[in-house]
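Researcher: Structure prediction, please.
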Amino acid sequence: MRPGERNPLNPSNHTGNHDRRRSYSRGAVAFAALLALLLAAAPANAGDEKQEDSVSPDAQSTENLDPETLDIMLRQNALQPAVSELYEAHLAEPAAGFTSISFEGDGLALYYSGTPTARMEGAIASARRLGPVEIKSAPYSLAEMEADAAAISDANARAGGNLQSVGMRYDGTGLDVERLPVDAERRILRTTNQSTLTDISTILSGLSLSVPVTVSTATEEVNILASRVADTSPWNGGGRWES
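Model: Predicted structure follows.
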């Protein structure tokens, strides 16, 4: 991450594939936990002059981070209590207008559809005592995008479609739907002895959705074994919140 870059804290994702499985996750990037892991990976005597010229073999050690990146992480870590204030308010009323939280500039951006509720206004006031919080208008809420994403995934499962994933845009502008890569679809047809998979565009045409949807064809197949909760090589697990 570089200063000014957006880092959405609660990206949600629906996925669907040929064997009709659907996975769903939502949460926030736990920078506090990540920082703790990084600090724990650093040698206890990292401040000694003899250690200054050495480089830790651990790729996650703070010794291998450039000062600018580490400074960004420390500033974002300091904002975690503010993130918690806002996200807890969302969890208390998940059907309200909350869309996402992201690190932007030196503070937080709360994307919200409509007027924040009294509970959210209270959380915003508390969060602002901890750091800058900017309210940004979102066309659609997380709840609205989740509902449509679930409808797409369910319809794909019923129709035997070629949906690979449904992604929700952090700014609430809609959904990004990906169909399986061509090679992956051909492989599935060969292994299942099917003649065709229903194209996701056809499936979408039969649905009454509330949010805009962009459809594209994936360039590579999603590895469903890679997960935020996977903490074995070659993946590094992360934190997540669930409601």
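Model: Residues 62 and 87 are 28 Å apart (CA to CA).
Researcher: Thanks, that helps.
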